[in-house]
Each structure stands twice: as structure tokens, then as C-alpha cells.
Amino acid sequence: MLLFREIWYLIQKDFRLEWRQRAALNGMLLYVGSTVFVCYLSFALRGGELPVPAWNALFWIILLFTAVNAVAKGFLQESRGRLLYYYTLVRPQAVILAKIIYNALLLLGLALVGFGVYAMVLGNPVQNSLLFVGNVALGALGFATTLTLVSGIAAKATNSSTLMAVLGFPLMIPMLLLLIKVSKNALDGLEMEASRSSLLTLVALNMIVVAVSYLLFPFLWRS
Amino acid sequence: MKKNWWKALTVVLLLYVAVAGLLMPVPRLAILNETIRNLYFHVPMWFGMTFILVASVVYSVRYLRNPSVELDIRSHEAARTGILMGCVGLATGSIWAKYTWGTWWTNDPKLNGAAIAMLIYGAYLVLRSSFTDEQQRARVSAIYNIFAFATAMPLFYILPRLTDSLHPGAGGNPAFARYDLDNDMRLVFYPAVIGWTLLAFWLAQVASRIALLKQKVYEKQLV
After folding, report:
1. Backbone φ, ψ for residue A165 (5° rounding)
2. Which residues of B touch A150 (CB under 8 A)?
3. With an 8 Å Cβ cutoff, is A159 touching chain B?
4. Is residue B1 assigned to a domain?
5. Which of B216, B222, B211, B189 is nearest to B46 (CA)?
6. Where are the transmembrane segments (chain B) (predicted)?
7. The domain containing residue B19 runs over which residues?
8. Is the dihedral of CA B26, B28, B29, B34 positive or negative?
9. For A107-116, what is the mean pLDDT?
10. B140:A153 CB<8 A
């Protein structure tokens, strides 16, 4: 029970920090907004009509890059002294679980805002909205789980920002393939039944990643 | 000599595979023709890669439980041997694809999975080279090794079976049930799998010995 209390305090702390220095949050929102707008302008040359597969692929690529940028600052931002201070107060499992939950909520917010702007300027061909939003939520959770530990790893090395992309992208490709498949089903308006096995695989994958992060983070923290 | 029987076995098995694989009768199948003999060289590479990468993860886990320079070197060399096996597997597969499917590379889930696996282990090497402190390098790269294996590897064995592939055993079928691998071919194929896997372990062992000796010479020079 103590673990849950620690997680709860850490998440509160993260949100409070984020709210106090709104520059980072606004920066990320602007990042999503301007990326979407750049895409819109580049496709406007072709009359503004985007074929559905391209719409889908572009949307996930934007989310992927937003996720890498948003999660990367999770561990890089924390100063060494402050991290040491946490470690005297709470257990490492609480730190990683709190970070994962916080990143998932942050990415979910960013993804939904991104989807809104994207649908506004590039049109909304989604036919099964419930499945699509559910899939975006799973995607945000999946990106957060995978990238949180990777950002912790990258923060230990010298050239962290390059390393973050190099380490994170190949790990996310399998997840991304499943997400794009479900997203295509939602765009085509297929029943939930057609995507069930992919959705279950995604949930199982998320659980594996959380479990492995939970086990490995204490070792990462000690170094 | 008692400890080295498996090396003799490797030599015997691989000599047998080289001779019997090229001379024994094979079924006459359309399109495949004589290229079916590549089965003895291409497929065992992936078996060897899987086993040697599992060994690398085992060494990483053992390192985290009980850190020592030797375990780190063994894990690193096993991963490098895995990359070598993967590259040879990709090359033999590519040549085979050129003669049967008519192209060096196609958009096939197994090909993509293999390429992503190579990217992940390439990232592992980049991660290793971006540390100056040896202990930190060993610890963090062990963590990444385990994390990458646990998150991405299961999918390489699940995803290709969910989607259609040009490879046999795709679309929900287990790999060998549909193979009409006849008994003549089994006589060479199973020894080939064992032989190439043992060769991978032999390579990793020799490479780790060289690395350990280099480490010792380096330590001597410091004194």
C-alpha cells in the first residue's frame, strides 16, 4: 500500500512541476501543432486531399516523434541532485511506475490535442471513432511504457538525445505496426471483432513492458 | 579433451552438412529447384541467432545479479555473434529470394522482423560505445539487452504468424507442420541446425576469450 501512496505523491509532484514551468508543456503542444501544420501545408500543394493510408501513416509518425520528444525530457530534465533526493525518500519501483503513468497521461493529452488539430486541418476520415480513440489511448500507454525506461537508459549515457531515438525506435516498431493495423480498421469502419486479437496483443505487450521496467529499473537507478 | 567434445561434434556435423547438403537427393519442386538446399544454411542461421541471443540475455541477467567483467564480456560477444548470424541469415535469405521470389528484398513480415532485430542490436552496440565508465557501460547495456529482448523478441515470433507471409508456416500455421520436409531432408536439416548453433557458441566463446585476454593485458599495462 505504501508503494501506491508513493506513486500517487510522485505523480502529483510531476504534474505540479509541469504546471509551474508551463514553458515545457506549451512547447510540446506547439510542437504537435506546428508539425501537423507543416504536414498540412506540404499536402496542400496537392489540393489538400490526403489518401486514407497516408493520413493514417502520417498521424502515427507525428505521434511517434511527439512521444519521443515528450518522454525524453522525463529523466533528462531531472537534475542529478534531485534524483538522489528521491532515492532517499521512495523506492525505485515507485519512481518508474509513477513516471510511466505520468508519461502515459501526458502523451494521451498530447495525442488527443494532436488528433483534434490534425482532423481539423486535414479532414477526419475515421468511421469507427470509439475504436480509433481507444487505439490512440493504447498507443499513448504503449509509447509511454516503452520510452520511459529507454529515456532512463539514455539519460545515463553521454549523447542522450540521439541515443533516445536510436534505442527507442526499433523497440517501438512492432507496437507501431499493430497500432497502425488497428487504426486502419477503425478508419475503414470495421467492427471491433476484426481488431480484437491485435488489441489483446497490444495490451499483453504493454503488460510485459511494464513488468520488465518494474524489474529492471532498480538496477538502472543504482548506477 | 572431455570438455571439448562438442567442438569436434561441430566440425563433424558441419562437414557432413556441407557434403551431404550439396550431394544428397532433394525433392524436385517447381521454382525452388536446387535452391532448396539453401534450407540447410539459411534456416539454421536463425536458430543459431535465437539461441545465442538467449545466451546473451542469460549472461546479462547473471551480470545484474552478480556483476563481473567476465559476464559482461560474454554477454557482449554473444550479442555480437548473434548479429553476425543474423547478417549471414539475411544475406543467404536475400540470395534465395532473388532466385525464387525474383527480388532481393520484399515487404514480408519475417524480413522486416529480422531487419528490426538487427537495428535493435545495432543500437545496443551504439549504446555500449557511448559510455566512458566501464562499470556503468556494463550495467546499462545489460539492462537494455534484457529490455530489448523481452519487449521486441516475442513479437518477432508472434507477428509473422498473425499476418500472411511468403515464408512457409505463415498465416496461423506452425512453421514445420506444413513443410513437406521429406525424410531425406530431415537427415541433413536437423544436424545442420545443431551444427550451426554449436558453431555460434564456439565463435562466441573464442571471441570472449580474446576479449578477456585483451582486458588482462590492459590491466597489466596499467600496473
Report:
1. -70, -45
2. 147
3. yes
4. no
5. B189
6. 40-61, 82-99, 111-127, 139-159, 188-212
7. 8-222
8. positive
9. 90
10. yes
H-only helix segments in A78-159: 80-89, 92-122, 129-156
Regarding pTM above 0.90, the answer is: no
**Cell numbers representing residue A138 in the block:** 493504447
Burial of B147 (0-12, 13-18, 19+ CB in 10 A): buried
- Probe site for chain B from A96, A151, A176, A177 (most B CB atoms < 10 A): A177
Who's near A217: CB < 8 A, 6+ residues apart?
A: A92, A93, A95, A96, A149, A152
How many angstroms separate the CA of residue A20 from the nearest CA in chain B? 32
Asked, for residue B129, whether it belongs to a domain, the answer is: yes
- Answer yes or no: do A171 and B152 touch at CB < 8 A: yes
Task: Render pLDDT for A134-155 as a digit per residue (tens, 0 to 9).
Answer: 899 999 998 998 899 888 888 8
Q: How far is Cα A126 from Cα A189, in angstroms, rounded to an integer?
A: 7
Give the cell for residue A54. Answer: 497516408
Cα B143 to Cα A167, B102, B124, B128, B213, distances in angstroms: 12, 41, 10, 11, 25
Interface test with A, best of B151, B156, B165 (most A CBs within 10 A): B151
**8 Å CB contact of A171 and B127:** no
Q: Which of A159, A205, A208 sits opposite B130 (nearest CB)?
A: A159
Q: Which residue of B has its CA nearest to A223?
A: B136
What is the C-alpha separation between B72 and B60, in angstroms, rounded? 7
Other Cβ atoms closer than 10 A to B78: 27
A-chain CB neighbours of B116 within 8 Å are 170, 173-174
Is B2 part of any domain?
no
Q: Which of B75, B116, B143, B146 to mutate to test the interface with A (most CBs of A within 10 A)?
A: B143
Q: How many C-beta atoms lie closer than 10 Å to residue A31's C-beta? A: 17
Residues B52-96 pLDDT 10s: 999 999 999 999 999 999 999 999 999 999 999 999 999 998 888
- Per-residue confidence (pLDDT) for residue B222, from 0 to 100: 84
